[in-house]
Design goal:
elongated, single chain, 57% helix
Amino acid sequence: MLSIIVAFPKIEDALKIKKLLNKNGYETVYTFNNATQVIELANSLESGVVLCGYKLADMVYVELYGYLPKNFTMMLVASPAILDRCFESDIICVAMPLKLNVLISSLENAIAIQRRKYKKNKPKERTAEQQKVIDEAKALLMSEHNMSENDAHRYIQKISMDSGNSLSETAEINLLLKKIMI
């Protein structure tokens, strides 16, 4: 689900924008006045748009942009002078004073970009057979090496990343090696 995070130095400003967005049909809107909370929430969400001012309580927009997960798009609301210095091509810029129709159309644009980006980066679904192999490999690691399910999964995941194989391929190799060693 696509979420919208609104962050401005004055929480009252963020709440006013949230109210405008709610009136225009946007329901999943969070408000903050500092970047740390934005980053923390963004890391726990699937995808979304961060609509923010130039400078928050703890960092400026470009620093926040650097910390955002790739599944988020940024919209910067600032004066034209500040926007002239915005060199990040992925940031959608909206000039102050803010007009509702410009805000909504820019947000729609950001959401469209975000949806295209998210579809492109979405991992492929595993087949039931692939999941079964992964589960068997985890069960083997859990019984043979007294690992928790989470530790077994992370172990297979690490081997997978190190080798460049998919998780299911790594699990299958792990099972085959075990059968050979028996």
